[in-house]
Amino acid sequence: MKASLPRMEINLSQIRDNAHLLSELYGQKRISLIGVSKATLGAPQIARAMIRGGVKFIADSRLENIQKMKEAGIAIPFVLLRTALSQAENVVRDVDISLNTEFDTVKELSRHAKAQQKTHKIILMVELGDLREGIPPHDLPLFVKNVLTLPNIEMIGIGTNLACYGGIRPDDKNMSRLSQIASSIEKEFQLNLEIVSGGNSANYEWAQSTENVEGINNLRLGESLLLGRETIDRKPIPGLHLNAFRLIAEVIESKEKPSLPFGDIAQNAFGDVPTFVDRGIRRRVIVALGRQDVPVSGLKPINSDLEILGASSDHLILDNQNRALKIGSEVEFHLDYGALLSAMTSPYIEKTFLNS
Ligand SMILES: *Cc1c(COP(=O)(O)O)cnc(C)c1O
User: Fold this and answer.
1) What does the alpha-carbon distance between residue 246 and residue 340 come to, in Å, rounded to a whole number?
2) Per-residue confidence at 269, pLDDT binned at 50, 70, 90?
């Protein structure tokens, strides 16, 4: 059977290698890893590759993705990154550990855990400046005190998330703050916090450069496992595969055309008034891929002769340095995180797993 187009080719052994190298690297600092599967929609094959590489938990922001991985038979502790009160019953049923910042939600988890005769584990997220999710540090002691009164809830750790909304860099200052918060909570309430989760793929530079990770003993990694980069400067992490994902699409037109549109220029399909540089008559190709599939700014043609000129909903236009590409031939792209996220979510793009 001929492979379908467009398709995403996903190299599972490269994802496993990335997980292995990062597990070793962070393991030297006694930091365990949670593999984050949300960008892959919880593809069970990818979760398995992460687990083979050594991650100790799988986390996702969507309950549906966790359910899919469990149904596929993956047996590892699952962590829910984003917890909604309305889902509490299913969270308790399907998830081992959830991240939380609202007492009402934890109360609801407790109620359902009691009804289901289970203990549900929680990690409380602390706000350290990025201003996405998190309990302000000065509210944490009272929050913990109240949580400890709830039946069937076990508080196993605290965590923080940086570099996501506010772009705040993980550094010795905020990481040390999290460590100190953890130890003061442990002392005040005589608990042992099994997990102190310092962040995500943006914590790489900090972890490499710090003298002392103090109490931080866990990170939650998505992008660096999948695309091999840290996420402060998007620099490659030495030894990791950067291109475990490749997007492949089909050439549907290949013609010589002027580089300047002719006629009266008005708005394009997306309400922008485009501008163009006159480079004379050029060989251009159209590939059957568009903005409905992927933000084209996140695509990079693997063939360096090709340059993306623009795209509409369903047509991607490339300059081909006056060389011809045959109709029906394939063009391959590397992707950034945003492009990966949309391409994985596009129902029009077939997902093909290699080296399973
Ligand atoms: C998405 C997410 C992660 C993973 O982030 P990466 O930058 O992909 O490593 C970690 N923690 C939380 C809470 C998340 O939502």
Assistant:
1) 9
2) confident
∠204-208-214 over CA atoms, to 5°?
A: 95
Q: Which long-range contacts (CB under 8 A, 24 or more apart) does 241-244 make?
A: 241/11, 241/14, 241/15, 241/17, 241/18, 242/334, 243/11, 243/14, 243/334, 244/10, 244/11, 244/12, 244/14, 244/15, 244/18
**Nearest CA owner, ligand 1 atom 6:** 222
One of 38, 70, 300, 351 is an active-site residue; which one?
38
Residues 6+ apart with CB under 8 A from 90: 63
Work out the percent of the chain whose per-residue pLDDT is above 90: 93
Residue type, 211: E
CA-to-CA separations, 163 to 36, 60, 157, 336, 342, in angstroms, rounded: 16, 18, 20, 17, 20
**Mean model confidence pLDDT for the chain:** 96
Is ligand 1 within 6 A of the CB of residue 62? no
Q: Distance of alpha carbon 99 from its chain centroid, rounded?
A: 16
Q: What is the pLDDT of residue 1?
A: 56
Residue 66: name the closest of 51, 53, 76, 56 by CA.
76
Q: Which atom of ligand 1 is nearest to the CA of 61?
A: 15
Distance CA 111, CA 114 (A): 5
Residues sharing a CB contact under 8 Å with residue 261, sequence separation 6 or more, in sequence order: 274, 276
Give the rounded percent of residues in the chain with a pLDDT score beyond 70.
Answer: 99
38 part of the active site: yes
Q: How far is the CA of 221 from the centre of ligand 1 (A)?
A: 6
- The torsion of the CA quartet 250, 256, 260, 261, rounded to 10 degrees, works out to -70
> Crossing angle for the helix pair 44-53 and 12-27, nearest 10 degrees?
40
Residue 14 Cβ contacting ligand 1 at under 6 Å: no
For helices 103-115 and 140-147, what crossing angle results, to 10°?
Answer: 10
Closest residue (by CA) to atom 12 of ligand 1?
A: 81
Amino acid at 192: N
